[in-house]
Amino acid sequence: xxxxxxxxxxxxxxxxxxxxxxxxxxxxxxxxxxxxxxxxxxxxxxxxxxxxxxxxxxxxxxxxxxxxxxxxxxxxxxxxxxxxxxxxxxxxxxxxxxxxxxxxxxxxxxxxxxxxxxxxxxxxxxxxxxxxxxxxxxxxxxxxxxxxxxxxxxxxxxxxxxxxxxxxxxxxxxxxxxxxxxxxxxxxxxxxxxxxx
Length: 197
What we know:
Distance between the termini: 35 Å
Strand content: 15-25%
Shape: globular
Structural class: alpha+beta
Helix content: 25-40%
Radius of gyration: 16 Å
Order of helices and strands: HEEEEEEHEHEEHEE
Low-confidence stretches: none
């Protein structure tokens, strides 16, 4: 695998984790081991000493652990790396039929830029195991990913919640690292510098 692809994956992972966990990269207290190539043409990012503690708590007291957010970011960048050009590192566009590749239990009505994030979530949930007959619904909500996942299955619910946090650090238009921003009409979107409106 090209050093350009590995370097790009590492850089995107650093940007997404920094934004998603709410701590500047230089202040994060964990080590990123060298990203390595997987057999599927993906970059696998491994890390040790990921930051712990909640990223945020809502008014009901529900929080998402930073370690899960870090794992969600690593999985998202790994899926995205399949589309990196080996010589330039540029990201190839997705075919418009990408939603057809999702499992039948996942319903996704999300912006195209989150396709890698959604694909990573589908793979993660398949690893965990979703009970027969359960469904996951995904949509854009307040500039981030909104999920409806079965609360009775804690690990599925937690992985979906971690991806919701990561979505606020991934451009909904192109999938590059981004951040949550207010638009000119008072709404919110997650965009990269290139797609700020």
